[in-house]
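call fold(seq) -> C-alpha cells
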Amino acid sequence: MGIVEIFAIAVALAMDAFAVAIATGLRMRCTMGQTLRMASAFGGFQFAMPVVGWLMGVSVRSYIESYDHWIAMALLLLVGGKMLHESFKTADDEKCPDPTRGFTLVMLAVATSIDALAVGVSMAVLDVSIWYPAAIIGAVCFIITATGMHIGRMVIRENSTLNNKANAIGGLVLIAIGIKILLEHGVFN
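ret:
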C-alpha cells in the first residue's frame, strides 16, 4: 500500500472528526488548549484503533487468505457506506458544556475513530504493516481536527452542508479504495 492510498484513507477516516471539530468550534469558539486536547484525543484514537484492528486481523489472516480482498472490500464498503449515509443526516445540536474534556471527549474520540478499527483489520488481511499507516492516520486526524475547530471558530453560523459534504467525500474515498483492492486482486478480469 503506497503513501497516496494511506493518505487518502487517513483523510477519509478523519472526516467524522472534522465534522465534530467544526461543530465544536462553531458552538464554543474554542481556545488553543481545547483545540489541542480534542485534536490530540482524536488523533491518538485514530492511531490506536487501526493497530487494535490489525492485531485482531493478524490472528485470523491464515484462515482467510483466499478471500481476504473481499473482506477488505466489504469492510471499506460498510464504513464508506455508513459515512455516505450520515452525510444526508441533519446535525443534531447536543447541549454539552465542554466536549473537549473528560468522558465526553473520550466518547467522541472513540465514536469518530471506530471506522479506523475496520481499516486496521483490512490492512492485516492484506498483510500490510500497520505502524507507518497508523502514524499517518493519527497525524492527519490531529491536523484535520485542529483545522476543523479553527474553521468552526471562524464561521459565524453553523453550516451542516460542509459537514455533510466532508462525510460524503470520505465515504466515497473509502469505497473507491475498496474497489481498487478488488482490481488489484484481479476480481474484474
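The chain has eight helices and no strands.
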